From TrEMBL:
The keyword NAD applies. Keywords: NAD, Oxidoreductase. Coiled coil: none annotated. InterPro entries: D-iso_2-hydroxyacid_DH_PdxB, D-isomer_DH_NAD-bd, NAD(P)-bd_dom_sf. This is D-isomer specific 2-hydroxyacid dehydrogenase NAD-binding domain-containing protein. Residues 107-230 form the D-isomer specific 2-hydroxyacid dehydrogenase NAD-binding domain. Gene3D superfamilies: NAD(P)-binding Rossmann-like Domain (3.40.50.720). Pfam families: 2-Hacid_dh_C (PF02826). It comes from Kistimonas scapharcae.
Length: 238
């Protein structure tokens, strides 16, 4: 059987490919694949691995040998899941992918915004800070995180990892009850109520038809004027 890896280079340097290529398949490995190259490269393949390259219904219908699509990340929004299901093509992603790094990135964003770091960094470069008559600059607000309320929307593996970091900073963590979700834990707060109370909102839920446009203008209007809103990269579904 033939296996194809469409965009290995997008995983970054230093990733060992041998656990995949040791599998008894006839492998073709490409660093990058443009959208117009997909059809030619997956021809007759039973297994296709992709990180960011889109695999749509037309690709699946053109090649009946295709049996498995592996997404080399968490999000599966680059694959037409409905078309795959209809054709009996198995699609999986990498569960637990990048939990520590995503949580770290989320908190890096929280700290950057809470301290107005980009603004103060620019002020130090353009001379504004050094021109201050009082040795320091107080132009931009700084939020001390201790005692502040963090609302996590999507309390899965990623959300829980962010919660642990927040608790280390002394934050009060709230878990949102997502409308339409089957999760009914008593400790969860209604989304609208949580948005109104939160100083920081961190979004970690997958993109599905139930969560698409979950945060819209009406919900944003519920938030306090000083509140911070973050969306970490996690999307599933078309």
């Amino acid at each position: 059987m033939k296996g194809v890896i469409l965009d290995w280079a997008t995983l970054g340097p230093g990733v060992d490919i041998s656990p995949l290529t040791d599998i008894d398949l006839e492998w073709s490995v490409y660093d990058m694949t443009a959208s117009e190259e997909v059809t030619e490269r997956i021809q007759d393949a039973a297994v296709v691995l992709s990180n960011k390259v889109v695999i749509n219904r037309a690709h699946m219908e053109a090649f009946p040998a295709l049996r498995y699509i592996g997404v080399m990340a968490t999000g599966m929004n680059n694959v037409d899941l409905e078309a795959a299901s209809q054709r009996g093509i198995k699609v999986t992603n990498v569960t637990g992918y990048g939990t520590a790094s995503v949580a770290q990135h989320a908190f890096a964003l929280i700290l950057s915004l809470a301290t107005s770091q980009p603004r103060y960094a620019q002020a130090s470069r353009d001379g504004t800070w050094s021109a201050s008559p009082m040795f320091c600059l107080l132009d931009y607000p700084i939020m001390e995180l201790q005692g502040r309320k963090l609302l996590i929307v999507g309390y899965g593996e990623l959300g829980q990892a962010v919660a642990r970091l927040a608790e280390a900073f002394g934050m009060d963590v709230m878990m949102a009850a997502i409308p339409g979700s089957s999760t009914r834990a008593k400790e969860r707060i209604a989304l609208d109520e949580g948005l109104a109370q939160a100083d920081v909102v961190s979004l970690h839920c997958p993109l599905t038809e139930k969560t698409r446009h979950l945060i819209d203008s009406s919900r944003l209007s519920l938030m306090q004027s000083h509140a911070l809103f973050l969306k970490s990269r996690l999307t599933l579904g078309m």
